[in-house]
Amino acid sequence: MRAAVLEGRQRMVVREVPAPPLRARCLAVAPRAVGICGTDLHVYLGTMEHRVAYPAILGHEIAGVVTEVGDGVDGFTPGDAVALDNVWACGRCPRCIEGQLNVCERLQVLGIDCPGGLCERMVVPARYAYPLPSSIPIHFGAMVELYAVAVHASRRTRVETGDTVVILGAGKVGLSLLDVLRRSPARRLVSVDVDPFRLGIARELGADVVLNPRECDPVAEVRRLTDGRGADKVLEAVGHPAAVPGRPAPASQAFDMVRPAGQITMIGQGEQTDSVYWREFVLKEATVVTSRLNLGDFPRAIALLAAGHLHPDKLITHRVPLDAAPRAYAALAAGEPGMVKVVVELGH
Fold first, then answer.
1. Catalytic annotation present for 42
2. What is the CATH number of the domain that holds 139?
3. Strands in 119-207 per DSSP E
4. What pTM was estimated for this model as a whole?
5. Percent of the chain topping pLDDT 90
6. Catalytic one among 42, 60, 139, 311?
7. Cβ proximity of 229 and 223 under 8 Å
C-alpha cells in the first residue's frame, strides 16, 4: 500500500509500505480524510524524536471506510464510514481503572506511538471506531478528533452564564474551541492571535472581540473590557508561540489576565519558558487545569457536527491528495500564510 512516510526530520516521502493484516476484534479501514494538526508538526520538525521513531506514518485525525471486519466484531459492515479515536488506553492501569483513559500509564496515541492514517489501509481495534452519520461529509469526519479535544477542554473549563472567556491562540485548537464555546452561556468570547487571517476566521465563528498582540496589549485590553477585573476563564491553546517584542509568552499573559478566583485551562504544548509571578497568582486564588486529548468525547463531537452546530468548513483551508502531503507539511512548517487546517484526502 502507499503511505506518506516521515523518514527523518522534515523529510517526508510517499512510497510503498507493507499492508497490515486483519486481526480478531479489529476493523480494516481505508482512510479517506486525515487532518494535519499541531502535534503532527512537532513530530515533523523533530521535537518529538524521544517518542516517535523514524520511519513513521503520521496522522491521528482520521475518517475512513470499513473494508473488512475481523472475528469477534459486531455492529460494523464493509462500507461503513467511521471516525477513529486516537486515544488507545490499556484499560488495566490505575489511571484507566479510575476512568482517566487519556492519561493511561501505557497510553498509545494513534499516529504518534503507532502508525497513523496517512496510508491506504489501517487495522484498528473496533472499540476505537465511531460510526459517522451520512449527513457528515467524510472530510468533515476528519475534524471529529479536533472537535473532541475542544469538547473535552470546554467541559474541563466549565464556562458559566455571563463569563468573559479568552482563548489565546486562533490556530486549529483555538478556533475549534471557539466554535464549540459559541454555544456556551458566556457573555463574551475573546480570541487572541498574531495572525490577522486567523482572527478573521475567529470573527466569522462568532468571537465578540479579537485582539492582536502585535497591535495592542491583550492583558490591558481584557482588563479594560472587564472594568479592571480580568477574564473569568482563559484557555491557552498556543502550540507554536510567536515571539512579540514587549509581550510575555501566552502562558504568562493567561496568568496576568485571569481574574481572582478565575480559571486557566492549559491546552497548548508549545515550548514556553517565561517565568510566572506566583505570589500574585496565589493571592488571586485562581485555578489552573490542563486538558489533554479527549476523554470519551467523540460521540458529543459527532452529535454537534451532525446537528450542524459546528463549522468545519471555516477551519479547513486546504484539501490535498496523499501525493501532496509532503508539500503540505513543509508549507505548514514554514508558516505559509492562509493555512489553518489541511485535510489530506485518499482514495478519491
1. yes
2. 3.90.180.10
3. 122-125, 129-131, 164-168, 188-192
4. 0.97
5. 93
6. 42
7. yes
